[in-house]
Design goal:
Shape: elongated
Mean pLDDT: 82
Number of helices: 1
Radius of gyration: 36 Å
Low-confidence stretches: 38-42
Oligomer: single chain
Order of helices and strands: HEEEEEEEE
Helix content: 10-25%
């Protein structure tokens, strides 16, 4: 009897750690992991692009400011065509960049010989991508060779441009678009205090290749 009691006590002693281990499973802590490196979000609008444009003046005026006589004005019409190039950066849906455009101008007064020979536009652009479409706004600097057409010497007209546009990605390389641009320029002429203000709007069609 005593031997049986000793055997039972020994068995209970061996079983206790096994039961304890089964009730209290050891907790293993996960090894710390390094944070994932930051990767800038990019998209289809990233990179250089270049193309051609053609525009039509939708309304504007040339105002002649004479230091010794009342101001006079005349309407501006016709349009321009040329080339442009720029660079976009895309971060998520936000797209921003800069653009340079050179255009041969046929912008002139309706009732006189004054006209622009050519135009240069420099723009800072900011847009928001929606699938294949990129609506954007821009503001920048414009310069044009203005000729009064009456033998007087002119400085180049310069000033600001601003407007709205939209580009559409036809595929991975080609895009087409349209743009409304407002230019507000002025120039001195004939070495006097006289000047000419040229304020006009244009609608421009665009086609470009993305590199």
């Amino acid at each position: 009897m005593e031997k049986l009691a000793l055997v039972a006590a020994a068995a209970a002693g061996f079983a206790a750690p096994a039961f304890a281990g089964g009730l209290n499973t050891p907790v293993v802590e996960a090894a710390p992991t390094a944070p994932a490196p930051f990767v800038a979000s990019t998209g289809k609008w990233d990179g250089f692009y270049g193309g051609v444009t053609a525009g039509s003046v939708t309304g504007g005026r040339a105002t002649y400011k004479n230091a010794t006589a009342p101001d006079t004005s005349d309407s501006l019409g016709s349009g321009s065509y040329g080339v442009f190039g720029g660079y976009n950066l895309q971060r998520g849906s936000l797209v921003y960049g800069g653009e340079l455009a050179l255009q041969a101008a046929d912008v002139d007064t309706d009732n006189g010989p004054a006209h622009f020979n050519n135009l240069l536009d420099v723009k800072a652009r900011l847009g928001w991508a929606y699938g294949d479409a990129l609506p954007y706004a821009f503001v920048g600097y414009s310069r044009g060779q203005w000729n009064n057409g009456d033998g007087q010497t002119n400085d180049d007209a310069d000033g600001v441009n601003y407007g709205l546009g939209v580009d559409y990605a036809v595929n991975d390389q080609w895009q087409v678009g349209a743009e409304f641009i407002r230019r507000e320029l002025d120039t001195d002429f004939n070495g006097t205090a006289n000047s000419v203000e040229q304020n006009f709007n244009a609608v421009q069609l665009r086609a470009a290749y993305r590199f």
